[in-house]
User: Fold this.
Amino acid sequence: MATKCKNRKKRRPPNGLFQQAQRQYAKGNFKQALKDARLCFRQESSEEHLRFLQRACLARAQQLYRSGLRSQCRAIVEDLLEIGVTEPSVQEELPQLLVAVGLFDRVSTGGEESSVGTDSQLLLSAADHAVLRPDEAPASLPGVRQGALAIRAALNNLNEGKESEAVAGLRQIARGSPFADWKYFVRGLAAYYRNETTEMRENWDRLDSARFAARIAVPLTSLADHASTERNDRRVRAMVAKIEAESDSGPILTALHELQDCLAANRPKQALRSLRGSRAVLQKFDPDVLSRVSQVLCSVILRRGLESLLRKLTLLVDPPPIDPHWNRARALACEYSAEGDPKRAESYWVSYLDDLAELPCLSPQERTLARALVWQRIGANCVEEHEAPYLTRSQSVQLQDRAQECFTNSLQLDAKLLSSYKALTAAQMAWKKPDEAAETCRRLLEHFPEDFDALMFLAQHHIVQDEPFPARDYLLRARRLKPTNKPVLDLMRAVHVSAARHYTVEKRYEQGRAEFDAAEKLNPPELQRYFLLARRALLEFKAGEFALGQRLVDRARSEAGEPASILLVLAIDAGRYALSGQFAADYERQWQAALKKKCNGTSAGRMCQTMTAYQVRKVDRPGWSRHVESLATYLHRCSRVKWQADDLQQVCMFLEAISVDEEFDEEYDLLEKLVRKGRKLFPERPVFHSMTGELEIANGPWECDRPKAIACFQQALELAKDSTDPIDAAVLKHAKSRLTFLGEAGLGFHGFVDDYDDEYDDEYDDDDDDDDDGYDGEYDEQYSERYDDQHDTGPFTGPPPLDFFDFFKQGNDRRLDTVEREVMKALKAMCAATGDDMEEVLRQVIAGMPPDSRGDGRQSRRKQKKKRKR
Amino acid sequence: MSADPYEVLGLDGGSDDAEIRRRYLELVRQHPPDRDPQQFAAVREAYEQLRDPEVRLRSKLFSLDTNQTIDAVLADVKQRLGTVRIRPETLLSLAEE
Assistant:
């Protein structure tokens, strides 16, 4: 060290030492500044050097005091006093420091009183320091020592629980006394120990924030009031830690604060590490606190499906009473984990079923119900797993069987578990097993005879099965529950009409007429009224009342204002009412003749509505294709028709329903055109936006413009959300599911979604130009050519492919040839994971696809269109 | 997150249907809707959450939400620490921290 100093001295110019000391002082390096100042003064005892030395001494002493090095500070102050204080700035600041280090008396008795002086601020500081160290209280300041002793006595009394004595001992302290702050502090502390936060705050709010009492009050306030804003202050937390370190509880608050920080920062791993470190402290304080903290952490871990962290947590804390072997938590973590294995989750749930059988924290009834709920959960998981797009047929069957078995187990344990019946019914409907779903609903009704949903489900089921009489029984029960419910009344009307037809076929005409009367009393909508007349006419024809029948037909035609839709109903239903073939042929001929006349939007809309209704109700009848073809031809001629929104909506819905069939490819193009028209003419109708999105998706995973499809469905969603129209309600539901699909599909297994965005958006996001469709042909050409070029010559860099498997599952455009490489890769990985034979899987995949999608037939809609244009 | 329904009704987690109902009726008598509508609403909401044994059990078995939060634990611990006496020397040493 000495050598170093020597070297430093050598390096410096002799007259530069003082400047160097000043520089160190300015930098805040007071230790070096003081050393250099002393050296300078020793070399040359000038007035300037003396004053600088005094300043350096004071600054260094203050620095040491602030660092808590009181004895070192005191030594330097003593040196300063020996040197003598002549510098005015030092004279001003020194008294505070003298009071703090207990040297005030030495100055006042040493004849320096004139230079140090006394003022009220100094008195307050002296009082504060005297409370901390009564022995060092300056005797020269009257009353300070006595006041400090009184405060200490009060604090000691309070610590011993003698509150009244503590408060009484401070009564003589006047409001203007330098100890008044301490009096309020003691009162506040007494309130703090009594848990009376308001009184505590009232007293401590009066404290001078620059004084010691206020500083002590801050961490205590933070302890007492959990809403205190100071609690996040690091200094306050250090003070709280100091309080904790000297108490029996240990650093519990520090530990909890650390955990709180980790959880707030969403860092469960660090939180677990922190819990491991503080476990003993929490356990010692109160095992219940440890249990509560572990519940919080467990919840975070489960929510994020962090199985490895859960494993560590189970080693650290006791399991909760509801989950004695952690099986429930493990199952939940598996379910929520991104890589969660459903089979593993199921095995944990099954283990948990055993735990539940003897769980002491539940009553016997609760145990049974809990087991039933767990079986239901396993079943629901199987149903969810069944929705995965990459299942082989055998896996699908296995999952269905397992789900069925789980729900059955659940219902065996608790036959009145309504949620299990409903979950099973929904699953069976999703698996397209309506008869089994109906059976489940019947079992449900045995226990819940007034379940409205089940009654309606069964009524609808029987209507679709053309069984009006059982449907009527269920509907009557539903109607008793909700007499004015519109769907009930609509179904009831359909039942009456269907029953009338059955009676007509059985030649029970009076009963048939009564059914029609009943249907009419239910206030059918306008179009249905005309159709009722037409169908009633068919009954009369069958009953031999030809004149009456003809009058009814004429009335229906005149009231409807256009004949085509009435004639279509007559042509279709003549056969269903068991009239002779001549009737059907006659009305068919009349209908065909009506179709040849000038096109009309109302007729088109009504005919489409009629045809869609037959299709929805799966009415099996001869001549269906012929009728569809004739109507489609008619619709192709409707290019110059002035459309009403409802009619165009019905036409589009009909075209959408039939265009799933390849036979009607031409109608698909018409649908695209009419949907564009509908979107332009009636932008307030959500159905047209939804259909535009749907058409976009139908372009297949490689050609779908995902942003456009998303925008369409979002618009449909926005428009439909406040509507009461049943079609809009269906659109709303559909748009939601499609948006979910598109959101997930964008993150599909191809995984290169974001790369294309900027380039793609700049180049192609131009589809709303002057064309009426918001999606122009130029785009098609540009896009298609780009696709073709890139597909032929190298890696495709266009818009992202959507998840092929999602498309496959959802029945959209499927073309193995466009995705073969990725599909083969994915299939290979899947087969490796599941142990399936890849050849067998491929065979099943191809067998489950329509012929065109096997790469041997139809091309994508867009490609076909391009070809036609050429 | 809404308050723990058991806490609102002043019950422990193992209470059965009868206990829940009895306590609910007691609290409704104490806080009738015309005099104490806020408290009544809280009691009612808590009861609605607990009255159906299936909902109650489903929440116990499958819910990831815990009625505990680290803030609540901290507040509770602080409350309990508040009653612990702190030595005057420790207190005064905070002044120069």
Notes: DSSP finds 46 helices and no strands in chain A.
